[in-house]
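User: What would this chain look like folded?
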Amino acid sequence: MPIILLTGASGVVGQALLEHLTGHTVICLTHRRPVTGPNVLGLRGDLTAPLFGLDPDEYDDLAARVDAIVHCAAVTGFSIGQEATRDLNVRGTSQVVELARRTGAPLHHVSTAFVDRQGRDTGSTARPDVYLASKRAAERLIRESGVPATIIRPSVVIGDSVTGRIAEFQGLHGIAGAILRNALPLVPLRPEARIDFVPQDLVGRTIAELVRSGETGGEHWITAGPAALTAGRMVELALEVGRDLGLRLDTPRLVSQDMVDRLIRPVFIDPLPARQRRRFDDMLAMTALFRTPEPFACTCVPLRAAELEAAFAASLRYYAHAKRLAEVVA
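Assistant: Here's the prediction, encoded as C-alpha cells.
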C-alpha cells in the first residue's frame, strides 16, 4: 500500500482529501491537532523547524517510507501577520521541498487560485496581499527547486456538496452568514463579479486522482471557472435559503468598491467605532479579490452552475444549523 505524507491534515483541504485516500497509508504531520482514521498514522512535528522538529532517526525513517507528499499546510487567514504567514507558507514549504529532494517522491503542493488576483490594502488587519505574496513565493520556490512537483490551485473551498459539512468555516461563510443574520445592508461587490468557489469533495477527489496518477508536473486549477456564480446570484441564493429556514431577511444592496470609497465610507463607515470599522475593512479586503468578472482557469472536471448552487445552499444550511440561526428541518 503506497505511503503518503500529508501536511495540514486537520484543515479544510486536508480533511476532504483524507476521505479520498482510503487506498493508501497516510502519515499526517500535524503541529497541534492530531488526526485519526483508517490507515492514518499520526506524526507530531513542526514544518518550520529543521527536520520538522523530529530527531534525525525519526526523520530518516520518514524519508525512507514516503512514496508521495501532499503539502496542504498553510496560513490562510488574512490577519495573521506577515512574519507568521511567511514562516509557514514559505519557510515551511522549503522544508517540505527538502524532504521531496531527499526521497525523490513527487510533491503535490496546494496553493491557491487567487495567486492570479491582486489584494487590496484597506489599512485594516486583513492583508490578503501578504497571504498572496507568500503563496507566490512558495510556488516560485518549488518551481526553482527542480523536484518533481505539481502545483494545485483551488479557489474558495466550501463544504461538502451534499451535506455542507466543513472542518472550519471560511471567509465566504462569514459574508453569507452576515446576510443570514440581516447584518449586511450592503455588499461591496458589483452584481456581475464572479464568486468562484468549489465544494470540498471536488477538491479532495481531484487531488487524490492526481496522487494516484503518479503525475509529477504541471499546474492544476480546481475552480468553477466559467460556471462561477455572480455576486448577484450568490446573494439571491443566500436570501432564498434563509427565507426557507424561516428567517426574515432584508435584501442587501450590491455596490462597487469605488462607491464605497467615495460615498459610503466618509458618511457611514468612518464615524463607526474602531471595531466595527475594522470588520467592514476586513470584509472589503476579501471581497476585493472577487471584483473582476473574468473567470479563473479550470483544469478539473467542471461543475455546472446548478451543481454549484446546490452545493452553496447545502453549505449555508450547514452554517445556519451550526450557528443556531434557525431550526433546520432535515
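The longest strand covers residues 25-30. If you want, I can go into more detail on any region.
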